[in-house]
């Protein structure tokens, strides 16, 4: 049996204009209100997939590895490692996780692999028994980043992952030897090269963790992209193909950055605009 549970991690406040790319504020503020510093609330949601003999965690959020000054710079709201608290609420610790899937290696998706910041202490990798699964092209991007996104990666984390001996890198179109044939990975290059989007087979239709291809419900609308996306036009084409595929298969999306919507089923209205039905704020023990 397989169940799905969404887990909140540390939250952020980031500039709304950056998060909505070339969409005007008059449009995006209908969906997400901005504070006095023009920032919107964002989550860093992970997905726990519990199977008969293992626990799989999709992403770890931003975590609490930043020093206090960097935490303030990047709008991280909590000093504690919220994801660890969320795991504990379900009777688990990081040591109980068997596999961690990372859509990509930007710090707001992989930073939760590290222990909380402590003055004078080096970075420390959590999840001591887990294998770490990510895309090979994303790994190559992370270890030799472009100037535009160099600050999005954590060099110390990359060193720790490589030294762990538990890193599995997936080539495009390749399944995971660790996870098995029941797991499918979609490839997306629009946000960052080689992002992998895991699809989990469920009785009620596939569930896809949308990563930064579709970070939240407002971004389901095809023209909406982020200023952080490397190739926005290509991203829109990827999003179109993915939504069409999921709609045909009664699929659902899990959102990592939406503070209000954890999951929704893909829909399309009479005018051809994609949206969501059956949206929910949290998922606990979903088995269908």
From TrEMBL:
Keyword vocabulary terms for this entry: Hydrolase, Metal-binding, Zinc
What is the name attached to this protein's record?
MBL fold metallo-hydrolase
Decide whether keyword Zinc is in the record.
Answer: yes
UniProt-listed PANTHER family: QUORUM-QUENCHING LACTONASE YTNP-RELATED (PTHR42978:SF6), QUORUM-QUENCHING LACTONASE YTNP-RELATED-RELATED (PTHR42978)
Q: What family is it from?
A: Belongs to the metallo-beta-lactamase superfamily.
* Species annotation: Geopseudomonas aromaticivorans
Any single Pfam family the record assigns to this protein:
Lactamase_B
InterPro entries, sorted: MBL_superfamily_lactonases, Metallo-B-lactamas
Q: Does the keyword Metal-binding apply?
A: yes
Q: Where is the Metallo-beta-lactamase domain?
A: 43-257
């Amino acid at each position: 049996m397989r169940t799905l549970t969404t887990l909140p991690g540390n939250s952020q406040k980031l500039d709304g204009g950056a998060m909505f790319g070339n969409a005007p504020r008059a449009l995006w503020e209908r969906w997400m209100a901005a504070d006095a510093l023009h920032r919107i609330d964002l989550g860093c949601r992970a997905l726990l997939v519990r199977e008969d003999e293992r626990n799989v965690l999709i992403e770890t959020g931003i975590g609490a590895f930043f020093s206090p000054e960097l935490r303030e710079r990047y709008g991280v709201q909590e000093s504690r490692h919220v994801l660890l608290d969320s795991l504990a609420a379900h009777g688990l610790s990081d040591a109980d996780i068997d596999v961690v899937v990372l859509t990509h290696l930007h710090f707001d998706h992989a930073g939760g692999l590290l222990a909380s910041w402590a003055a004078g202490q080096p970075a420390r990798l959590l999840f001591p028994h887990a294998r770490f699964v990510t895309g090979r092209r994303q790994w190559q991007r992370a270890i030799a980043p472009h100037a535009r996104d160099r600050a999005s990666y954590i060099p110390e984390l990359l060193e720790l992952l490589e030294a762990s001996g538990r890193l599995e890198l997936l080539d495009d179109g390749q399944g995971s030897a660790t996870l098995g044939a029941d797991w499918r990975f979609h490839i997306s290059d629009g946000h960052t090269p080689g992002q992998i989007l895991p699809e989990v087979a469920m009785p009620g239709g596939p569930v896809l963790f949308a990563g930064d291809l579709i970070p939240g419900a407002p971004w389901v609308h095809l023209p909406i992209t982020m200023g952080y996306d490397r190739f926005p036009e290509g991203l829109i084409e990827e999003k179109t193909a993915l939504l069409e595929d999921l709609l045909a298969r009664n699929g659902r999306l899990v959102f990592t950055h939406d503070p209000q919507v954890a999951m929704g089923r893909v829909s399309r209205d009479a005018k051809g605009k994609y949206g969501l039905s059956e949206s929910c704020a949290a998922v606990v023990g979903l088995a269908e």
